[in-house]
Design goal:
With 285 residues, the chain is an alpha+beta fold. The chain has two domains: 164 residues, Sandwich (Jelly Rolls); 108 residues, Homeodomain-like (Arc Repressor Mutant, subunit A). The chain is 48% helix and 19% strand. It contains twelve helices and ten strands. The strands form two sheets. Strands 1-3-8-5-6 form a five-stranded mixed beta sheet, with no helix packed on it. Strands 2-9-4-7-10 form a five-stranded antiparallel beta sheet. The protein starts with 7 loop residues before the first strand and ends with a helix.
């Protein structure tokens, strides 16, 4: 498969929200598409591959894909799926009650760890039902505060998805999980100015060791790995889609020097920031 195709940009949508029922949709996006909205895709049945940021995912049944704004989405030729496609922007999410904010942070801030959620039969039926209710409301006649009602349904779905992420809920108590959610919320707001596990732990009234332990149990990653993952995701987006010099990106992410940023980036990506950017500049040439 030739991945060197021009990267298109997702089009704006009214009210930064849409949901649709998909029946045997074939080859939705053959060209790589840079998303400007978040997506929740429920696969009830499918075949072929979906490609997110260069990683291939089989379109098998009973899966939910979470795709964050800024990621690059593409479908392999002749791929097909049935299910639901829910698209929402951050400005629409702001309509949801604040009590759900950390659920989105848990799921979308560490997106590489949550790209694919596998469902059992009961969970598949539950999410299909919830998304169908949301779809019917979306297609209903307009009324005052309709967007707020849709946001409330989205909140329910996000909370349910966050609970699916707890693959073994009995393995840790709800207080630990709430602390983990609060940590993810903090990272969302402060990762560009704070890289220190100790400082996040202090704000949560935890020791750094305790914070890393509960992160490991809730996500499979320790606290430092989660912070680094957020930094890498933001760095990649800035390099792919922005025109700021590497030096400016380094300072925007609160690295002391461009050299420190380059060393950090190369440690995990295996190539320099400039080499990474040039890969995308050469796409389609």
């Amino acid at each position: 498969m030739n991945l060197k195709k021009q990267i298109l940009t997702e089009l704006e949508i009214e009210n930064s929200f849409t949901i649709k029922r998909v029946e045997n949709l074939t080859s939705e996006t053959l060209h790589p598409k840079r998303l400007i909205f978040n997506r929740i895709i429920l696969i009830e049945d499918g075949s072929g591959n979906m490609i997110v940021d260069g990683t291939f995912y089989r379109l098998n049944q009973k899966n939910v894909f979470l795709i964050a704004k800024g990621q690059i989405l593409q479908f392999e030729k002749s791929s097909t799926y049935s299910g639901y496609n829910l698209v929402f922007g951050d400005c629409f999410w702001e309509k949801t009650p604040k009590s759900a904010s950390n659920c989105k942070a848990v799921l979308f801030n560490n997106i590489s760890a949550n790209q694919l959620l596998e469902l059992n039969e009961s969970e598949l039926n539950e999410f299909s039902s919830l998304l169908n209710i949301l779809l019917k409301e979306y297609l209903s006649d307009d009324y005052i505060n309709k967007m707020d009602a849709l946001a409330a349904y989205l909140k329910i779905i996000m909370i349910k998805l966050a609970n699916v992420k707890m693959t073994d809920e009995a393995a840790f108590n709800s207080q630990d999980y709430m602390a983990y959610r609060s940590f993810m919320d903090l990272i969302s707001a402060e990762f560009h100015v704070c890289h220190s596990v100790n400082k996040y732990a202090e704000k949560l009234n935890l020791t750094a060791r305790r914070l890393s332990e509960l992160c490991k149990r809730c996500s499979g990653l320790n606290a430092k790995e989660i912070i680094n993952g957020q930094l890498l995701s933001e760095a990649k987006r800035s390099l792919q889609f922005g025109s700021s010099p590497v030096k400016e990106i380094a300072y925007n992410l609160n690295f002391n020097t461009p050299e420190e940023f380059s060393h950090f980036f190369k440690k995990y990506v295996k190539i320099s920031p400039l080499e990474y950017r040039n890969q995308y500049l050469n796409l389609g040439k």
